[in-house]
Amino acid sequence: MLLVIMLGLLAAATAALPFLDRVWGRSAGWAVAALFTALTGAVLAVSPAIVRGEPVSFRVEWIPDLGVDFALRLDGLALMFSLMVLVIGALVKIYGTSYFPEGRQGGVYAVMTLFALGMLGVVLADDILLLYLFWELTTICSFLLIGREGSSAAGPAMRTVIVTAAGGMCLLAAVAVLWSATGTTDLTAILTDTSWASGGTGTAVALLLVAAAVTKSAQFPFHFWLPDAMEASTPVSAYLHAATMVKAGVFLLLRFSPAFAENPLWQILLIGFGLVTALYAAVIAVTRDDLKELLAYSTISQLGLIIAAIGVGSPSALIAAAVHTLAHSLFKAALFMVVGIVDHEAGAKSLSEVRGMGRRLPVTAGAAVLGATSLAGIPPLMGFVSKEKIFAAFAHASLPAPWIILTGGVAVLTSALTVAYAFRFTAAFYGPVRSATDEPREGGPAFLAGPVLLAVGGLALGVGVSSLTPLFEEIGADTSGERKDPELALWHGFNAELWMSVAALALGAVLILLRRSVHHVLAMRRAPVTGSGVFDDAYHGLIRAGKAVGGWTSSYQPTRHVAAPVVVLVALAVVATWLPWDAAERVATSEPRDWTLLALVVVTVVGSVLARARLAVLGLIGVAGLVVALWFFVLGAPQLALAQILVEVLTTVIAAVALIRMPRDFAPVTRRRRVGLGAIAVAGGVIAALAAFFLTGRRDRSDVGEWFLENSEQETGGTNVVSTILVDFRALDTLGELVVLAVAGLAVAVVTSRRGAPAAEASPEHVPAHEVPLDDSGPADYKAEATLTDQAEDNTLIPRVVGLAIGPVLGLLSGYLLLRGHSMTGDGFTAGLVASMGAVLVYLSAPEARHARLRIAYPLLIVAGVVLPIIAGALGFLRGSFLHPLHTKIEALDYTLSTVLVFEVGIVLVVVGTVVASLRNLGMPNPGTEVPDPGEQVDEIVREQQTTERGG
């Protein structure tokens, strides 16, 4: 239970942090740091058993029908990454309490904690589907953390999320291939039996996993997003871009190494990507003056060395990659925090601005020296041990001799460049004084705790590296399947890796002595294009292409929208004529009543086509819908018919409300356009009719239909098969449709509140010509006459009296349909429509729209309507899965009580809330809008017409 409790506590902390942020502001970081520290202690408590080869695991059924479990496993590899997430996370949160300004922090702690939850989920997941979900959670969180820095961070955030999400799609494809090939999503089972790793399946999975890893770990040519992401605040950079997120790709490769360690394609891809990236990024880092940009390219380069070592694939190489991953997290997080301190305390962002600060910020400079020394691979720091392990991996790789020389040489050259830029970083603190401010001050204990502890930790682990032997021995077993002594020590004698270290340091010293010339030469040899530039060009090109394609339908002209489906229908009809149809096979028959109903539909449709007034068209279409509802009754589908009637009535009312703000008649249409639209309409109708004729009655009830009829009552307790399909068997789909309806209701409110619904324009067409006299006495006489019939209060007397009687009936009927819907005709949707009739009655019985007593808080109704089904669905976990219905039979009432009833109540709330939102925002004047007096409008119209007549 420990593992799921850890994730649960992080989830709870994420939910609580916005509230803590309101009270404590940036000091809320202390609460998160305390949680991370406690979780670190819990992990360390079980670590002795783990390094003995006894992993901690948790497994519970998650999606039993698919065989997917919520499975977690803490082994040696996951232990190392978990400690990195928790320990560095705690120090970053403490660091943030001094780095961030006083006051609320806009949820940055919450998102960082959610990111920690995602990263911890990635390393603990023992199910490939669960692994993918947590992987994508880290992508989303990184986007939020980068994008929150303002408009300048919009581009970097977008590049980050697109590149890493593309890698996530590759991981999803790998999950699908593995699932299909092995029949399971159990990660341990997949890596135990690796028979799938050969042939086409293995090649496909290897390519997809490498693509996912190199995008996440910023390898060339996908490296450009990481330097751009330095727009994020320094705590975010120290955590995501040095210790955790970019290490997710490394973890993925290490986790799948048992299956691919000896796969030539795997080796070629990883060694190629890794060494090219390592050397390229190191060259760029040497030329950079911006502190965070230098560290970003340094991170890319070091990750390249790690990935290349994983590509070598031997047990020693995999251990070396793990050791260097740990060392890199320590010194790089420390260096990022140092950069944040000098920026915060002195406003320094570049090497030239930090000169001389070593004297004024001695503790900060000391942490910088330790971190940079470890980065350069100088003894006795942890970075020296890990760099020697990397060199040993290349020196003893199972590769042809020329390739060993080439790969080892690239690794040495990369390390020499690392020595050069590490020296530049350190020396800047002790050069001539050129700080951005005159008197920078050393940070407080909370500010210095992170970089100092991490830098000193790199020194302590370097000296006492042998204490890590049990951990990395277990990691070697997890990544290669072979338990091997990691041989962790500062001194291994005079061997190949020692001479490679000496060569890297010597060459680095030469580069330092010639740094001006080297910098000048490298600065002149910049690439003609940049990764960000190529990405932006491709991105904007795709946007332009999308606009060009979407331009065909980005119009209010129906022809453009209807043309594509009509063409497809015609093509299908042409294909269908080649099939061996036999009209004799049809079993469906028609009766005179069918033809009568069809004739009514035809009359109403033809009338709607010929009518010019919008209201007339609306009425005719509504009649057509009611005829169809009657047809449903005739055919034996009362529930569908009832829903159709209610929808037609509500749609007509809401559309009529909207029509008040629109011209009375449609705009004139040319004959050519009328003919074109008519041809499209006739073609689509004929094809649909033929399809219905030929397809109706061609098969008996399907096997699925028979199963629902036979098993619905036993499985759900309901006898209304249609209802049980919608809210029991297909509940997730219905929940999605409910969310769409909820969003539509809220969108109506948002759009009308921001842009305002257009007020009805006073124009002659709003007043019938025969009602507007044009003689001199016209205005006064007309106004006097109008007042005799324009008694709104009196005219609504009957609707108001009827409403008092019908309102309670509608409420009772709605509740009746809701309660009986699981067994007989009715459901939450129908009940919601009936309840909405009450709102319509209130609206129509008011003298004016603004006097309608629709005081219902519809946003609250809509939100509650979505939350209730989710709560009901969560109860399904008691039976093994989300949205699994719980039901019990009340024998005394002969009634089955089910959690589906809660789901149905949510549907009622969303339907009512959406209808009320439409009435209140479409049918009522906007706040602050002066409603024109109809009599004054008529007077103005008449005056204009008389002036025109006299002038003529």
Topology overview:
Elements: H1 2-24, H2 28-51, E1 56-63, E2 68-74, H3 76-99, H4 108-124, H5 128-147, H6 154-182, H7 187-192, H8 199-216, H9 225-228, H10 234-240, H11 245-255, H12 257-260, H13 264-287, H14 291-312, H15 315-346, H16 357-360, H17 362-376, H18 382-395, H19 401-427, H20 445-463, H21 469-480, H22 496-513, H23 515-524, H24 531-550, H25 558-576, H26 592-610, H27 614-634, H28 638-659, H29 671-695, H30 703-716, H31 721-729, H32 731-755, H33 778-789, H34 792-795, H35 797-820, H36 828-844, H37 858-875, E3 887-890, E4 895-898, H38 900-922, H39 934-951
Antiparallel strand pairs: 1-2, 3-4
In which range does the helix fraction lie? over 70%
Which stretches are poorly predicted, pLDDT < 50 over at least 5 residues?
757-790, 926-938
Q: Give the rounded overall mean pLDDT.
A: 84
Rg calculated over all Cα atoms: 36 Å
Could you tell me the strand content as a percent range?
A: under 5%
Shape: elongated
Strand order of the largest sheet: 1-2
Structural class: mainly alpha
Instruction: Characterize the quaternary organization of these chains.
Output: single chain
Major sheet size, sense and barrel closure: 2 strands, antiparallel
Calculate the terminal CA-CA distance, rounded to whole Å. 92 Å
Overall strand count: 4
Instruction: Supply the number of helical segments.
Output: 39
Keywords: Antiport, Cell membrane, Ion transport, Membrane, Transmembrane, Transmembrane helix, Transport
Membrane topology: Multi-pass membrane protein
GO molecular function, one term: antiporter activity
Main location: membrane
